[in-house]
Amino acid sequence: MHIARIGLGVAAATSVAALAVTALATAAPAAVPHTLAVPAVAGHNLVHGVSSPLTSEQCQAKWHINCYTPLQYRKAYDLNPLYKKGITGKGRTIVIVDSYGSPTVQHDLDVYSRQFGLPSTKVKVVKWGHVPAFDPKNSDMTGWAGETTLDVEMAHAVAPAAKIVVVETAVSETEGTTGLPEMMDAEKYLIDHNVGDVISQSFGATENTFPGFSRGDFSSIKKLRYAFQDANRKKVTVLAASGDGGATDLKLDGKTYYKKRVNSWPSSDPLVTSIGGTQLHLDDKGDRVKPDSVYNDYGSGGGGQSHVFTRPSFQDGVKSKVGTRRGTPDISMTAAVNGGAWVYSSYDPTAVGWDVSGGTSEATPLFSGIVALADQAAGHRVGNIQKALYGLYAHNAKANGVVDVNDGTNNSYQGVTGYKAVNGYDLATGVGTVDALKFVPALAKASRG
Questions:
Q1: What is the three-class DSSP state of 389?
Q2: Which end of the chain, N or C, is more open, meaning fewer C-beta atoms within 10 Å of its C-beta?
Q3: Which of 277, 274, 256 has its CA nearest to residue 409?
Q4: Concatenated DSSP letters for 121-177?
Q5: Which residues of 272-302 are buried (b: 16+ CB within 10 A; e: fewer)?
Q6: What is the pTM of this model?
Q7: Which DSSP category does 64 fall into?
Q8: Going by DSSP bridges, is the β-strand pair 163-169/172-173 parallel, antiparallel, or unpaired?
Q9: Minimal CA–CA distance to 63: which of 76, 75, 45, 51?
């Protein structure tokens, strides 16, 4: 059994377990900031070789956490009636961007799908750059393989008929580490070649770690926005995980946290929909035993004010919460490790079997599936959903499937005070979460306008 725990919440967790892409200060000129991409999922081995998923009761007995299947998620998010109507993501493509990828991603998705009675789908792999051969003894590669596996299986769980394209980037190069620029190049190439309707990004870099930030020079971030600007023109939806560090995030060393509120990019970019994290409380059928709360266990849902971007017009209606800055997240899905997702993987021969994973790197591909469903329902790409999303929230939110998360829990983390989940928009969960049966058609309809 391999449980991927996000953050440093358990004594033996690895230091890269939080969502981070760390900028290297000395590597490159400001025009092209060289960065080190660290995956959002880093493994912590507790038990090897679990042959099949356990019930939540069994997980509680063994590890004191709940663990959920895609069938429970489908009930919790009211997806099954959409599938009965034929809204399955058919004809739509989800693009997932991860360094290195996983050599067993297709096999693992097939096993995952069979386990839960889902149809599998073909995963197209695009290698961007000289992607090195996979080495299961390389912790960076196995970390990214875990992220890739989680991304693919979660996107498929929500949009089972959508096509999936995995873009593997070659982060380690002889000239140095590129990371984010290479990821943005790959995304722009696929957008320009009309590949994909929604892009899922389970990575991020603390804004403060970019070259020039301390001097108030944000050009190193703004010069990386070209893929998102391209996506906005081509009506491709771009999503990014809000992070697993609550109201703070990692410093340049990738191990220690800022002792103040910070934010991360690309989640903070106004051209990107920021996906935060909740904790689901479900029975074995997937029915809620109590309302959703904020993800805050082995990590915490990222959220707060950007120090780079001012408040975009689509957030004018929530200016009392975000102030003059861009606020994140925009919307949230399940991310807590206590309530994590069962995932199957075989890329590591020493840990073949079923894992439990959490983090906003789970929430983001789940929401990419929601967007793919909306694309199909609309008959076209819904594109940049920000204006539509905040419009649905502002006018008859409940009827539009926008579900408030307001139980008073918070995303404080690593000693930095975060934000509470209160009535309406907040900097812990955004506008809340979704009832897909209502939200998908409402988003499709809003996008036509």
A1: helix
A2: C
A3: 277
A4: -PEEEEEES-PPPP-TT-HHHHHHHHHHHHHHHHHHHH-TTSEEEEEEE--EETTEE
A5: bbbbbbbbbbbeeebeeeeebbbbbbbbbbb
A6: 0.92
A7: S
A8: unpaired
A9: 45
